[in-house]
Amino acid sequence: MPLSKTYSKDKSRCKVVFSLPEGAAGGARKLFLAGEFNDWNLTGLPLRKAKGIFSASLELPAGSPYQYRFLTDTGVWLNDTEADCYVYSAFADADNSVVVL
User: Fold this and answer.
1) Which end of the chain is more exposed for a tag (fewer CB within 10 A), N or C?
2) What is the pLDDT of residues 5-34, one digit of tens each?
3) Total number of domains constituting the chain
């Protein structure tokens, strides 16, 4: 599922729905969203699972890109296959997903 973006009337904020199909979650029972918008808090943003899709929505300031990744309950990091783009992270020695607002 592509990232869902809904901008406020004045375009200063955007509600983003982050989602990942259950099949892409590697058998995870729980999934968390971590990124620049929450200081990479590993468990602060749990995703809800409904109809085979993990999802979470956030309202973020518009006008910036935000790096993020999904973290499974088994400690495996996953990228969003529908991210706007990807950026290499030396910290993780892997690419991070990016949403551009």
Assistant:
1) N
2) 999 999 999 999 999 999 999 899 999 999
3) 1
CA distance 51 to 8: 28
Q: Which helix (H) or strand (E) holds 60?
A: strand 53-61
* pLDDT computed for residue 6 by the predictor: 97
Q: Is 17 exposed, middle or buried (0-12, 13-18, 19+ CB in 10 A)?
A: middle
Identify the CATH number of the domain in which residue 41 sits: 2.60.40.10
Domain containing residue 78: 4-100
Long-range contact pairs involving 84-92 (C-beta distance under 8 Å, separation at least 24)? 84/3
**Counting every residue, how long is the chain?**
101
The C-alpha atoms of residue 69 and residue 36 are separated, in whole angstroms, by 10
